[in-house]
Design a protein that fits this description.
It comes from Streptomyces sp. R44. InterPro entries: Cupin_2, RmlC-like_jellyroll, RmlC_Cupin_sf. This is Cupin domain-containing protein. It holds the Pfam family Cupin_2. The protein is an all-beta fold. It has a single domain, classed as Jelly Rolls (Sandwich). The termini are far apart.
Length: 94
Amino acid sequence: MSTTARATKQHEDDRVRVTRWDFEPGQSTGRHIHAYDYVVVPVTDGRTHVITPNGTVTVSELRAGESYARPAGGEHEVVNAGTAPLAFVEIESK
């Protein structure tokens, strides 16, 4: 099994990019920087560890359908810290 979550681009145009992320337990996005403001829409319930470059770990409990928004510029890695598959849709505003 790969350690990297599967990213599937669902839509992209000059205004937005929509990506679905699917994680098995323990899989990660890899470290990245958000170039755009974004909204995350969890598809499943789950727990993530959000790891910043300085090693700070934030535990997040995701609930299916409970969206949240974040500004551009954040740098982190997201890991599925649960025991079940995890999925969310990320909508980036260009």
